[in-house]
Design goal:
Number of strands: 27
Helix content: 25-40%
Largest sheet: 6 strands, antiparallel
Distance between the termini: 57 Å
Number of domains: 3
Structural class: alpha+beta
Shape: globular
Oligomer: single chain
Radius of gyration: 26 Å
Bound molecules: adenosine-5'-diphosphate, magnesium ion
Strand content: 15-25%
Number of helices: 14
Length: 565
């Protein structure tokens, strides 16, 4: 039990670091059990992995807050944050040398994601955390370790996991807020909307490195004609802008807040914590940001709908390159998003290839169509909606090329959004401003690629997966660079993707399934058996947060050894 653990730790004092490994095991504390699953081999290795296991009854969280999966996700998220705050508070107030106290838990950002850091089932509440076991040089500091594990830990748990000690109002709000957001996303479908932005939302962020809301920002307000009102399960009613299906063009001068709006919509596929400012910015959950990403690898993607007649007769029906240009990368990103079942594209001129987006009337006159391999997106965006039922929201501030095809044109003017559709349509109809239609009004071919097993290393060093922050996964020695996936928001999602790759390589892959079908199988397994189940570890599963299917497939697409047919 806890007392035995305490004396064990005291006895280890001064011994060689490796002796810590005898701590592995489960210990009974007063209110919980502590499982020490993995002990670090030296002081500089990643911290030791532990779980705190408590009966749900002991924690005392009302069953009414835990009786659906979404509620459990919200409560788990709240408790992970509370546990983390409690750690920081204990470290601040402890009289120990702070350098020795290294307890940490996964640290969520502004989004609420399904995670492995706190898991709640019918009987137990389990918190997964890490602790760096203290040392002086390579000698064990046993007494310090005892004070951390048998002294501080129960305090941390007491403050953050017991219902009677936590901020109950904040917890209820956290759960209600998330349920409202889940409901809103369903409501989008019912109303044929692709996105919703509530009045009074705060869209801009504190800074380029902080995702917290900007103070003193101009709150969002909906153009009058797009205003909708929706009642929420919490009993609240919200009003705000409902963006319908089809093509939505956002225009306006530089620095007026266009990109800020689009970025909020990109994140609207996730639920946000209260006071984020974007908690009522809701986007269809399959929405994909599409950007240019020159230099990326492309493997046999059919981009012929956008690009044809390349020099040297390079075939674009199964286009491969190790070094894509701006336009070919953006075309591939569109086609891959469609393969991943996206039904809403989000495009910002700031991160687009100009020749992919537009070609003005003068250039149309100068360059004969058979000399220009690219059909710009402006010629395909309408058939994309009409043939494939895929909507687009895009920012184009520097050209009127999209006026003809847009279903609505919204102008950002000093952070205020106005509907200028009528004026834009009138200009498009005016003699002298008309432009040639470059499209044959069909979207063109789409090819679903089948994943081949042979692209994945079988075993050994080459098959090891490791993540470096949010934007790089190392597969053996090969880095998969995924900074182009702008809707990936959390390091633990990247971790999860690497675990998913390993899981599916071992268990699922056969040479008959498309990318999308393969992903669906994994997501079904996770749905059925829980996120823990895909982890290669028993006990503490590592810090995993569920990514979307779009980012999982997006990562495979950026894997340079990928093989498909
Ligand atoms: P654009 O894409 O139109 O050039 P941005 O979206 O990049 O403009 O915004 C320009 C600046 O204005 C950014 O620093 C952003 O944080 C700030 N900003 C955007 N929206 C608001 C707002 N509603 N209130 C205050 N500042 C804002
Ligand atoms: Mg911009």
């Amino acid at each position: 039990d806890a007392r035995q653990l305490e004396s064990k730790l005291n006895n280890l004092d001064g011994q060689k670091y490796g002796a810590y490994k005898q701590l592995k095991g489960i210990y009974q504390f007063k209110d919980f059990r502590l499982a020490i699953d993995h002990v670090q081999v030296d002081p500089f290795a990643p911290p030791s992995k532990m779980r705190l296991i408590m009966n749900r009854e002991t924690a005392g969280i009302p069953a009414a807050l835990l009786d659906s999966k979404n509620k459990r996700i919200a409560v788990s998220d709240f408790l992970t944050r509370a546990f983390g705050e409690s750690i920081r508070k204990q470290i601040k107030t402890s009289d120990m040398n702070n350098k020795n106290i290294k307890i940490m838990i996964d640290r969520p950002g502004q989004e609420i994601l399904e995670r492995t850091s706190t898991v709640i089932d019918e009987q137990v509440l389990e918190v997964r955390f890490e602790a760096g076991l203290p040392a002086a040089g390579r000698k064990i500091l046993g007494r310090a370790a005892a004070r951390i594990i048998t002294g501080l830990l129960p305090e941390i748990a007491g403050d953050s996991l017991f219902y009677q000690n936590i901020d109950q109002k904040a917890l209820r709000e956290h759960v209600e807020m998330m349920l409202d957001q889940v409901h809103m996303r369903k409501e989008l479908d019912e109303r044929d909307l692709v996105a919703f932005v509530a009045d009074e939302s705060i869209l801009p962020r504190h800074s380029g490195v902080s995702d917290k809301p900007l103070k003193n920002a101009v709150p969002f307000s909906s153009p009058e004609n797009l205003k909708v009102e929706i009642s929420l399960p919490s009993g609240r009613t919200v009003t705000g802008m409902g963006i319908g299906e089809g093509i939505t063009l956002i225009v306006g001068g530089g620095y007026h807040g266009k990109s800020t709006l689009l970025q909020a919509l990109e994140r609207g596929v996730y639920n946000h914590i209260p006071d984020d400012g974007r908690e009522m910015v809701i986007t269809r959950n399959d929405a994909s940001k599409i950007r240019a990403e020159d230099g990326r690898n492309i493997e046999k993607v059919n981009i012929s709908t956008f690009i044809n007649n390349l020099p040297a007769k390079k075939d674009t029906h199964a286009f491969s390159t190790e070094n894509a240009s701006g336009s070919t990368s953006q075309a591939a990103n569109v086609m891959e998003a469609l393969e991943a079942d996206t039904r809403l594209l989000l495009i910002d001129e700031d991160t687009s290839a100009t020749n992919f987006m537009i070609r003005d009337a003068r250039m149309q006159k100068l360059i004969a169509p058979d000399k220009e391999p690219i059909t710009p997106f402006s010629g395909k965006v309408k058939p994309l909606y009409e043939d494939k039922d895929v909507s687009t929201i895009l920012i184009v501030g520097g050209s009127g090329d999209y006026f003809d095809v847009a279903d609505r044109v919204l102008m950002m003017d000093e952070y205020k959004l106005k509907d200028v559709t009528a004026a834009a349509k009138e200009i498009a109809e005016t003699e002298g401003y008309r432009r040639e239609d470059m499209s044959d009004n069909t979207f063109g071919e789409m090819t679903e690629r089948v994943l081949l097993k042979s692209g994945f290393p079988k075993s050994g060093k080459e098959s090891r997966l490791k993540t470096k922050g949010r934007t790089t996964i190392l597969y053996g020695r090969e880095p998969i660079e995924i900074s182009g996936l702008e809707q990936l928001v959390d390091d633990s999602q990247t971790n999860c993707i690497s675990v998913m790759i390993e899981y599916f390589r071992n268990q699922i892959l056969d040479d008959r399934l498309t990318m999308s079908e393969t992903a669906d199988r994994i997501y079904n397994d996770i749905e059925k058996n829980g996120l823990d189940s895909i982890s290669p570890y028993s006990g503490h599963p590592g810090n995993l947060a569920l990514p979307r299917k779009q980012e999982f497939i997006g990562t495979l697409n950026r894997y340079r050894s990928l093989k498909v047919k």
